[in-house]
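subagent[fold] <- orchestrator: predict structure for attached chain, return tokens only, no commentary.
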Amino acid sequence: MEDSEIVPEIEINELIPCLCSKRWVLAYVAFVGFICLYAVRVNMSVAIVCMVRLDNSTSNTTEQDLHPTCTDDQDTQQNNNRGEFDWNKSTQSQILASFFYGYFVMQIPGGWLSGRYGAKRVIGVGLFISALATVLMPVCARTRTELVYVLRVILGISSSVMFPAMQAMWGRWAPPLERSKLVGLCYAGAFLGNIITFSGSGLLCANGFDNGWGSIFYITGGGTFLWLCMWVVVVSDSPRKHSTISEAERKYIVESIGTLTDEVKYTPWLEIFKSRAVLVCFIAHLCNNWMHYTLITGLPTFMNEVLKFDIKKNGVLSAVPYTAMLVTSISGGQLADFLRKRFISTQNARRLFQATSFLGSAACLVSVGFVPCEQRMLAVALLTIAVAFEGLCNSGYMVNTVDFAPRYAGVLFGINNTIATIPGMLAPLAIGGLTPHKSQEEWRNVMYLAAGFCVFGAIVFGFFVKTDEEPWAIEKSMNTEFEVSPTQTDSRGNKGQINHTFQLNTDHVNTKM
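subagent[fold] -> orchestrator:
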């Protein structure tokens, strides 16, 4: 652009709010929402450690005989004695996995419903049911084990709408060169949710009310109910429907995205399933999820079985990696958008951040399998770095659907996450099957498997990622909404002038961030 074109854009920038804008308020509220979502999702991973009575199998003795200086922390026995349930390894794995049997059900419908009726309603209803299922867990667990399975499936179904619905909302709210920042901040709430839940649950297991573990479910479910009140009051489905947004911000968002209508009445299903961009994003999503669910469901157990941490230290140390992930998710979004504006293309930015995420995590996971229990703090450090690398995925595949199909981002994420939920079902079962004797050597195979998925995902996404908006994702009626210049005389000239005007508007918006 010439210098004469930059001056008026700087003047307009002064009229468009940033950190206190409505789009950023949405990111802040959604950030807290993802804290609540992950609180109700992962609470069972820590709670189950102190819900189950102490296992006196000989496998633990064998492991300690191999490493005589690596012993359980002193209060492990005391806390395990508070357990109420005689669930074996297989039952525990099935309880953790049952969440994902429901989680895949509403992924595609959640994205479609959000595009058709608005993400605000879809997320509100989904999180309300999730909170209700959570607070009912202690009573149902003490009644019948089968009810635990049922509630976990219901929890999976209701919480599955959050990600695709939020993607649909960002398709309407996130200007192109702010996408990494907004999406990165929003989804960073999931990592903080892990941090709070892992660390807080460990303390509640040892010191909370209702025998410790029961308080975990009451507090996480109750907090979600409180967040719902804020969600209903503060959030709107799109800039057009927001009652207090400034006209400058509304125009800025709408023109930069280029979407003319809020309601998506038609979805090009055939083109979606034939799209290379969708396939590549799906593969990256699947590979990342295997690592993610391996750690999120297995990390507390690994800390207990291999590293021999007591339940209080277990919870806190299981949270440490997600603290690092929170930092890399937010800072990665800022860095990605900075690089996109000044140095590299969007495609290369997505490729760089996702490849770094996958390969960095893989190297650390392989390494942690060889760290002896006597050096367990080194193992925690490696796990922390591995999960920190995973945080960069929010500037990689996680935002990719908003790049190439912002109008259908919700339903696309739903399609991807439906199949990418399969690792959530299989990873806990794989952990249980691969670690029958709870030894470090067995857990090493778990880490190998997760690292293999990471390497495969890095290769596919690195070579084949696409970021340009797909032809099938462009709204067909776009041209009818723009004012036509009086100098235009024919339909061919009209179309060219309209497209040229829209391109100028897009460039104008993109260069002023």
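orchestrator: received. Logging for downstream: The chain has two domains: 21-54+83-476, 485-513. The chain has 23 helices and no strands.
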